[in-house]
Every structure is written in structure tokens, then in C-alpha cells.
């Protein structure tokens, strides 16, 4: 083997490339130790989290919790007092990273003298992307504004402006989208459309950071959730981790000792009168409930009702916020 350094470097280069290609992709968002104070008001206090590629992360918390401040810090619109941000593996300030990020602001306003199609074309130019006119029209169709493409934005309703904002956030084929309350102005159909849109982004492996007070929506589309309270991360995790165990509520009679033992084997059992509650472990199998019911019937139990229940994200969020910051991490 040669010891000539140039020969060694040449031999190593393809290996290094292969090594790099084999590395897992960097997260879409990585932030660590973010802090921001406005005079006496602490807006963001030691916030760290990641959003994986293709992941939909929900940022939840009460008014003033610091959600918008975090999003603005990630985008470089607000300078943090401390902390670091990487977007798509590059420093948050790097224009190359920013060009691949879409953003819908909380308070959106677009040039009232431009038409919807012109607003989109302007943002495509600002992103430095080459998006053909046909694709720009498709973005407007995606948010239900095809018929209004040639109308001036000044005459748009609030919900129509928010739809345009979504098209702006998505038109330049971003790999990461930050949406600050994307459905705040939308009617129920518009909200359902946004839900479908988020699911289609997930399918295309576009990462989404979403902030919304409509917790049911977050529960339907998000893979993971970060809950902020008074600027701090009060809890974070997957929905399964945060919502934990499921309950099975049953109304039964003629329960023998053997049947009761079978119920207790399924999970923690409590009962009063003919009402039985089994707290099931999070990793239960899909056939666990029908199997249990079939066996109870075989053991001679009369089954009047079987109701699976799960604590909702809303209940869990309220528990966490009432317990206070830091009480339940
Ligand atoms: N430009 C600013 N100047 C002074 N204080 C600010 C500024 N921006 C945010 N704050 C303060 O920082 C805190 C967090 O605000 P932020 O807008 O991030 O909350 P949020 O979680 O997005 O709330 P909401 O759900 O109401 O949108 C609040 O106390 C707010 O008053
Ligand atoms: Mg906000």
C-alpha cells in the first residue's frame, strides 16, 4: 500500500462519500437551549427539541406560552438570547437552509394590490426556486383558491388569505414547513382540507412543525407533541407516550371467580356493582379486546356493554398545565 498522501486521499474520497451517504439524514429541526426575554418577560426558557424528516410535530400550550417566539427563533426572525438552531442540518441563519423552509405566520398579510397568483410568483422568486407556472396553479388548487387566482388579495376574506398563506408556505417545494396556527381563520371544511394537506405532506416526507389550539386536530395529524408552558417544555413525546394507557369499561353480570381472574390478567382491574374497568397496557395487541370478550362469554359471563376509552390529548394537556411547569416531564 502506498504511503503517498495524495494517493491515500484519492482512495479515501469515495469511501468518505459512501460513509456520508449512509449516515442517517439530519433532523429537519434541531434546537437546543433556546432562551428569549423581552424586558422582564421570559418568553422562551431553555427549550430544546427535534423534528425528524417527514415527522409532524405539534407545539402546544396556552396563550403566551412561547410557541410563536420559538417558531420565530427557528426562522431567524427573532434573535435568541441563548441557544442553537439547525434547520435541515445547516445553521438556521444559512440561506441555503432557509430556501427549503416554508412558513405560514400567525399574523399573515399579503400585498393587497397583488393577485393571489402574483403573491405566489413573488414568493417563488424570493425563495430562489424554479417552480413552473403549472405547479404554482396547483398550489392554489390545493388550498381551494383556483377560482380566485386572478383576484386582488385586498378583497379576500380572512380565511381566503390564510389559504393563500398556506399556498405560499408550500409552493417552493419545502422540506420543512413551519405553520403557526394554520387553521385559526378557517371554516370546518377548510380545517379538514388542512388536515388532509398535512397528511399528504407527511406521505411526501416533508417535516412539519405545527402550532394550534385545536387539540383534536393536533391529535389526528401529529406524530409527536411538545407542550410549552411559561416558556418551558412542560412535556414532550409521542401521542402514545403522552396519552399512555387505555381503559376498557365493561358492564357484566354472572362473573365467576375464574372470569374475574381472566379480567385481572388483562390489566389492572377495578369494579363496582356490574361496572368493571380494566386499565390496559399501552402495547396491547389489536385482538386483545375481542379475545377477552370471547373468553368471558365462554366462561358464562353475560356481557352487556364493552366500551374502549382513551384519555384525550385535551384532558392530558389540561392535567399537565394544571400540574404546573416542571411537574410532569
Ligand atoms: N415582540 C415582543 N415584545 C415583547 N414581548 C413579547 C414579544 N413577543 C412575544 N412577547 C411575549 O412573549 C411571551 C410569549 O409570546 P408568544 O407570542 O410566543 O406566545 P404564544 O405561545 O405564541 O401565544 P398565543 O397562543 O397567544 O399565540 C408573551 O408573554 C408575550 O407577551
Ligand atoms: Mg402564537
Automatic annotation (TrEMBL):
InterPro entries: AAA+_ATPase, ABC_transporter-like_ATP-bd, ABC_transporter-like_CS, P-loop_NTPase. Residues 29-255 form the ABC transporter domain. SMART domains: AAA. Pfam families: ABC_tran. Keywords: ATP-binding, Nucleotide-binding, Transport. It comes from the Bacteria. GO terms for molecular function: ATP binding; ATP hydrolysis activity. Belongs to the ABC transporter superfamily. This is ABC transporter ATP-binding protein. It comes from Actinoplanes auranticolor.
